[in-house]
Amino acid sequence: MLTKYGDMSLAKGLVVAAPRSGSGKTLITLGLLAALRKRGLVLAPAKTGPDYIDPVFLGRAAGREAINLDPWAMPPGQLQALAAQHATGADLLIVEGVMGLFDAAADGQGSTGDLAETLDLPVVFVVDADRHSQSVAPLVAGFAHWRPGVRIAGVILNRVASARHERMLVSALRSTGIPLLGAIPRRAELVVPERHLGLVLPDEIDGFAPFLNAAAEAIGDFIDLDALFPLAAPVPAAAGLPAHLPPLGQRMAIAQDAAFAFLYPHLLDGWRTAGAELSFFSPLANQAPARDVDAVFLPGGYPELHGAALSTANAFHAGLAAARDSGALIYGECGGFMALGEALVDKRGVSHAMSGLLPVVTRIDRPKRVLGYRRLLHESALPWPAGLNGHEFHYSSARQTGLSPLFEALDAEGIRQLPMGAQLGRVMGSYAHVISAP
Known about the structure:
This protein has helices at 25-38, 54-62, 76-87, 112-119, 136-144, 163-173, 208-222, 225-228, 265-273, 307-311, 314-325, 335-340; strands spanning 12-17, 43-48, 67-69, 92-96, 123-128, 152-160, 180-185, 233-234, 251-255, 277-281, 295-298, 329-333, 343-345, 351-353, 360-363, 370-377, 387-394, 397-400, 408-410, 422-424, 427-430, 433-436. It is α/β, with parallel strands linked by helices.
């Protein structure tokens, strides 16, 4: 039975990565978290890059909130401080990578490899063995020697077809000198349940709990967990607390429910550390922000799935108007920006009245995906630096007239984008999700 390991005064960490998307990183990471948790370890889960959904799955498996570590949007000092803070009191920090190990933004920055190098953590390399035999060896060796600062400490094979297939793979991998931690067989119950556009939460997926149990069982049966832990390296100590964006106000009301679910934990932690008083309310439950707040934050989420409920949330709408009239700063991101507009047209073409604080109409009946990192510049009432890092991911579009944009924007390559969002007095929003200051 796996037990606690030695002196845990310094938490240790691993990064789970793969040659490409679809290799099984999520399966392996969730399985590791669930299996190690069953054995009594305290896990600190994290996700590489800008992602609101995967951290919820990781947190569910670990029994502890997951954070984002974004090597494109966050400077190295912030990454190190966040990792050290999150790993405090845990036995193991497990970071799920994104895409392939060296896949990055268009400017070549922000890969899982960049994060592993910044944190000086070893990589557990997940290889989809389907349609591979002896060629798995040069694949692994190539990734292992591509960048000296990125260490592949062990390999996990996924979707192995048979005992004979496994013997061929094991024999080939011996030449790499990299430990093989185990091989997961191809099984129907080890397919991650489908997620609509990748954007739903665990409670909305039929079969998530059985899948998580099957993943934990497979990890326990086929992965050498006793060999895994010694491969982990100490999480580097940080010189101080993570850098954070200032709170939007001293007393902040934050929307939080199924329609407004996209909140980065590092922002909330930073605002609490700065002494802000945070309160939460549910627009879907027709709740208004607290009356004495000086700032209201409407984060992103899925208002387009709840148009009818939001359109009749009269107390919510009246509360926003009252906050505006009292001089509070009101800021909406993506879904929150949509809720600040006059109307939202859902995928069926039905128009739903929103709060009307901004003369903006958003619609998702003509979906077009917009995705990418953004450098953001602003001159607004936001109490943040003039330059910000963020990302954009949405299928809806906005139409507005006569308003100043909230952000000037560049993509990861520095190519100028159309101005983003709108501001009217101290009410403002855009499709951008702000992550940090450079």
